[in-house]
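TASK: fixed-backbone design
INPUT:
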C-alpha cells in the first residue's frame, strides 16, 4: 500500500528490526523536515481527517504542542474498562508530577512545532515515549493545548498490542522522568 503513494512529499522509511514505537518515532523525527510534526499511528485508530483540528492551535499561535484527547467528547468506540481506568490513572499521575491538567497523556495523536524536538533528548523505545515526551515538554514550559478527537480503538482480536506490562512501564517512566531528564 505505501509503495503505491506517488507523492514526492511523502517519504517512507522502514525499520529493519522492530525496536518499538519510541524508536520508530525517533527515526521519523530525524527525517522530518517541515515546520510541524504530527504523530499518526499506522493502525488508524485515530482519524487523519482530524489533522486540521489538531494543528489549528499551533497555526493560530496559541500552542507549541497539541494533544488529541479521546476524553473531551469526540465519538469513540467503547472498549475496555481497565484500559480506560489505567489511562486515567497514568494521566492523573503524570499531571501530578508535571503540574499539567491533561485528560489523555497516553494519546498517540500529538502535533508540535519542529523546534520542540530540538530541545528534547528522547530515549524510550516502546510505549514509554508518551510519558517521556509529556514530562520533557512540561519541564521546558512549552505551551500545551488539548483538542477533542474521535477514536476507533481496536480489540485484541483486531491486533491491539498494548497490555498491563506497558502500563507498569509507563508508571515507571512517569516517576523516572520526574527525577531525571
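OUTPUT:
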Amino acid at each position: 500500500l505505501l509503495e503505491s503513494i506517488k507523492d514526492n512529499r511523502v517519504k517512507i522509511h522502514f525499520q529493519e528490526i522492530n525496536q518499538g514505537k519510541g524508536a520508530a518515532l525517533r527515526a521519523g523525527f530525524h527525517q522530518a523536515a517541515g515546520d510541524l510534526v504530527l504523530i499518526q499511528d499506522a493502525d488508524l485508530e485515530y482519524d487523519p481527517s482530524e489533522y486540521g483540528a489538531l494543528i489549528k492551535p499551533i497555526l493560530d499561535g496559541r500552542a507549541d504542542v497539541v494533544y488529541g484527547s479521546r476524553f473531551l467528547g469526540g465519538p469513540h468506540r467503547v472498549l475496555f474498562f481497565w484500559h480506560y481506568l489505567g489511562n486515567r490513572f497514568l494521566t492523573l499521575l503524570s499531571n501530578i508530577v508535571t503540574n499539567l491538567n491533561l485528560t489523555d497523556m497516553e494519546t498517540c495523536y500529538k502535533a508540535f512545532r519542529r523546534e520542540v524536538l530540538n530541545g528534547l533528548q528522547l530515549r524510550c523505545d516502546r510505549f514509554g515515549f508518551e510519558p517521556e515526551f509529556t514530562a520533557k515538554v512540561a519541564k521546558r514550559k512549552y505551551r500545551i493545548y488539548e483538542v477533542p478527537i474521535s477514536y476507533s480503538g481496536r480489540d485484541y482480536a483486531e491486533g491491539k498490542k498494548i497490555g498491563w506490562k506497558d502500563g507498569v512501564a509507563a508508571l515507571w517512566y512517569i516517576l523516572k522522568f520526574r527525577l531525571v531528564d
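COMMENT: The mean pLDDT is 87.
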